[in-house]
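User: Sequence in, structure out. Go.
Assistant: Echoing your sequence, followed by the structure tokens.
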Amino acid sequence: MHTGICGAISSLMTGCAYATSAEMAAEMGAFPNFDENREPMLRVVRNHRRAAQGAKTGYEGLSISPVPLIAEDNPDTPLARAAHDIWDRVLELGETRGYRNAQVSVVAPTGTIGLVMDCDTTGIEPDFALVKFKKLAGGGYFKIINRMVPTALDGLGYPEAQIEDIISYAIGHGTLKDSPTINHDVLRELKFTDGAIDAIENSLGDAFDVRYVFNKWTLGEEFCVDTLGLDTEALNGVTFDMLAALGFTADEIENANNFVCGAMTLEGAPHIRDEHLSVFDCANPCGRIGKRYLSVESHIRMMAASQPFISGAISKTVNMPNSATVEECNEAYMLSWRLGLKANALYRDGSKLSQPLSSSVLESDDLVEDVQSITEAPAAVKAKVIAERVVERIIIGQRQRPPDRRKGYTQKAIVGGHKVYLRTGEYEDGKLSEIFIDMHKEGAAFRSLMNNFAIAISIALQYGVPLEEYVDSFTFTRFEPSGPVTGNDSIKMATSILDYIFRELAVSYLGRNDLAHVVPEDLAPDSIGTGEDEGLFTAGPAMDAVKSVASQGYVRGNFFVIKGAKDQGNAAMAPDTEAEAQATVVGTSTVGAAHVPQTETALQEAPAVSSDVIEATDDRLGQVREAKMRGYEGDSCGECGNFTLVRNGTCLKCQTCGSTTGCS
């Protein structure tokens, strides 16, 4: 479509809609608060009118001028004139009556709706390809053909006979009869019976490729082995190509393929003139041999022609070829901004493992060509080619079972009034290997469901699924039971049982204190602040001994050994002997093949308490005293989550949102 026609249609559509809205306002009144927004609304309409009348400057309140509609350049003069004149009436009606609607038009995403409505193209999108394959939800594909091609060819002056030849070239003949390389006569010479040929013909109508039709399911395994003499083992192979096994060359198969299934493009079609090919350009190269496609700039300029006459934004995806670079994406967005577009989305073909529309299928010959090119290419090129040809990668790991005698911890908590027991098992290095979930006094079905859920998570962890993936998936899930959490020193509120469980695991095994409601520093009995060095000793033989016998999850990674205050100037509190100044770790466990030494020592000088720490401590204690004076109980509100609950008779009341825990 010509950009001028696109702009004229958009202008006429929105202009008529605003005129109708003004007529409705005369009967029903303008939209709410129109009087307050009268001048900004009329300014928008005046800018629409300026764009429709071809003004390049003079727009009110715009830092970027839109693309105007130039009537002289429009191939449809009456349409351009109507799009020009409508806005005078729109402004006149709006000044006297107002508008019933603040906005009247957007260009909506119509990909699915357009297909259901049997449209060839959707919204402002160009066609994806002349011949497309739509993936079905239940599996398989069906072929979609643009039915405007015959009409366009007729408009370009091609006679009917030539149009039929061109269409047959694009979509195929759907039969092997009269095929130049693989046809009925050739198949009969290879001992194909009339029944086998009929079976082939009946399957060609929906085929992507003739090779998909020649298989044991179409012809029968007995016929393939006894009559055609094919090997049974090879016949059952996933990559078996029957036509190649029967002696046909790649070129012969390709020629037959184009004859039966079509080239899916007009490039190379008989009778077509080169100057007419641009009429049939699509968003992507068409078929296996197509090279032409619409540039990214053409997408954006078509949108820019329509945007000045659309109240809202345009929902449009610019389909970029698989070879598009990051720089080209940047340039596309910059051009969109310079032309005044409100929105734009880019999609690089094949960037998802699965996409609903595709214009071609992956050919085995393509893979052979790639292998040859990779073999001869430099190392850098090899890496690039391999990366771009990857379609899907499945990684199957070996299951790593935890040791028979393993450490872990048990956490009891109450979530929304329901008791939850979480038990963990760990590998020798402290990583989580399994979980068990037990719900106290719950129904058999719910308890069994949670138990089996825990088993599924445990097996996945042992196969290498990162705990982070589960934390990201299950935290903040919302269902009952939910609410305040008691019995856990770090987590005080959960939106569901799963939210609580994976918060606990994240805090204990991943150090995700952002998911906790109480930071670890506040849990120590002698917590005095957030000094940079609090005398923690985190390395050495003693630490290794501690980690080998203590549960990583139980201590939440807080392994440390603290030395006394000797040599810090406090002789009264300093230990008398060097032995007393050493922190001693005693262990008698054997983990795997490594024996843990029974006694390890480590030394670390204790820090002096600075005046800044003392001041911060006083401020914190002051906040605690203030909270107690206000009557805060320290529990979180079940509605807003704030810790501002005060005693209200036998219940609690939130001073933030006003909700209660059960009393009115």
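User: And one key feature?
Assistant: Residues 361-368, 388-396, 532-537, 561-607 have pLDDT under 50 and may be disordered.
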